[in-house]
Amino acid sequence: MATTPPFRRSPHHRGIKRQRKVKILATLGPASRDRETIEKLLKAGADAFRVNMSHGDHDTHRETIANIRAVEKDAMRPIAVLCDLQGPKLRVGTFAEGKAFIRHGAHFTLDRDPTPGDDNRVCLPHPELFGILEKGQRLLIDDGKLRLVVIRAEADSILCSAEVGGAISDRKGVNVPDAIVPVPALTDKDRRDLAFAVEQGADWIGLSFVQRPEDVAEARRLIGGACALMSKIEKPAAVQSIDGIIELSDGIMVARGDLGVELLPEQVPPIQKHIVAKTRASGKPVVVATQMLESMISSPSPTRAEVSDVANAVYDGADAVMLSAETAAGQWPVEAVTIMDRIAVSVEHDSTYRERIHLASTPPDPTTADALSASCATIADTLPIEGIIVFTGSGGSARRVARERPAAPMLVLTPTLATARRLALLWGAHTVTTKDIGSFEEMIAKGKRMALRHGFGAAGTRLVALAGVPFGVPGSTNLLHVVTLTGNELD
């Protein structure tokens, strides 16, 4: 296999061109949502930003998104905004003293009585649970810190034994790993937040606590094509239905927080690899999220285990890795992005990286577009190709090429700003908005100019161009061409 030549920067280069293909998704919050910090995060390596709808109000989120768009305009680089819905999070009620203590091995009752609880009982304000729980099933409270096992489930009360007891306080979260909970994928709050996100021009919607493909279908109906939909896999039921969920989603997030609560810890790593491989094979972006550099919430440097965790996700070929509280509320948001960028660059320069990301086979579908996309990757792996230029309207061609994980980076040219922003989470894609093309000659000339302008080589550099004829028609990818830069295309 031929090696990619050393990176060469055109003297005409402008903007930000990453020295890695995996993307970084950073969550914004009190520590980072101001314009100045967003700009610093972008320069440090963030490619997209997550707005967590579980916290804050619409006025705050509106200001955050406006700050992102202002930075985007200054940087002349499309930035994806992902609005992450809270989802149907189950919680216990309140306690008379704000807290209680459940003794190890003691009996504890969850009931429908709204009266504040004590050491023996508390309200569970979710009537749908009382009809489905059975003897022996588990209830995990406060991210699994407390573990209850059902002894007897009745219409108005659930008697449990405390397999693992401890302190409990108001409104702590409840996970039910052993049953599919008949709750809607979207709460009333989610519907309001979704309408707000669409109104604000969000590029991606994160759908939390997906259990079934039907949950995804409902969200898609409400979105109506205004945004791309990313399903978050954080329930065992979702793992069981992963094929159907991937099919109906535009992207997948492996949300290891709640997934790690409802499954045994040792089950999460193989599930992560399984989901990443399946999503990659579908040609859709997959994000690995939660606790990736958790210690950097309060420390300026990560643990060695965290560094290995991020590296492992990059070696798996994930499209993006995500920072949560590290950038939203941590003391070192810019440093967290900086170290994640350094880890990703280091991994991708490892001599074994190419071999590792191709351990999972992604055979092309029997279509012209897929065959040509696979050919792009083969050419880039065989010849000293410094970039693949993809002309696309919907982003489909770019996703097909990215699925092959080619050696060369992609310069994606699109006339549609919404497409450019969505592709900010796609592996290897450097996306630029430009006017549509009308002829083969115009395609070649524009591709060369943009390659020089955005740092995809210099005089003598060879590039692969992928497009469709007739131009401007979605799904018409049928043209592949190898070009050589002269270096004077901008003169």
Question: Could you characterize the architecture of this molecule?
Answer:
With about 500 residues, the chain is α/β, with parallel strands linked by helices. The protein has three domains: about 25-85 and about 185-350, Phosphoenolpyruvate-binding domains (TIM Barrel); about 90-175, M1 Pyruvate Kinase, Domain 3 (Beta Barrel), CATH 2.40.33; about 370-485, Pyruvate kinase, C-terminal domain (Pyruvate Kinase, Chain: A, domain 1, 3-Layer(aba) Sandwich). The protein is about 35% helix and about 25% strand. The protein has an eight-stranded parallel β-barrel, surrounded by eight helices. Strand 18, helix 14 (about 395-405) and strand 19 (about 410-415) form a beta-alpha-beta unit. It is elongated, with a radius of gyration of 24 Å. It catalyses: pyruvate + ATP = phosphoenolpyruvate + ADP + H(+). Belongs to the pyruvate kinase family. It is an enzyme of class 2 (transferase).
Keyphrases for this structure?
491 residues; Pyrv_Knase_C; disordered N terminus; seven-stranded mixed beta sheet; alpha/beta; M1 Pyruvate Kinase, Domain 3; magnesium; eight-stranded parallel β-barrel
Mind sketching the topology for me?
Blueprint: E1 23-28, H1 35-44, E2 48-52, H2 58-75, E3 80-84, E4 90-91, E5 99-102, E6 107-111, E7 121-123, E8 138-141, E9 146-153, E10 157-164, E11 166-169, E12 173-175, H3 188-199, E13 204-207, H4 213-223, E14 228-233, H5 236-240, H6 242-248, E15 251-255, H7 256-262, H8 268-282, E16 286-289, H9 304-315, E17 320-323, H10 325-328, H11 333-348, H12 353-357, H13 368-382, E18 385-391, H14 396-403, E19 410-414, H15 417-422, E20 429-433, H16 440-453, E21 462-468, E22 477-484
Parallel strand pairs: 1-2, 1-17, 2-3, 3-13, 6-7, 13-14, 14-15, 15-16, 16-17, 18-19, 18-21, 19-20
Antiparallel strand pairs: 4-12, 5-11, 6-10, 8-9, 8-12, 9-10, 21-22
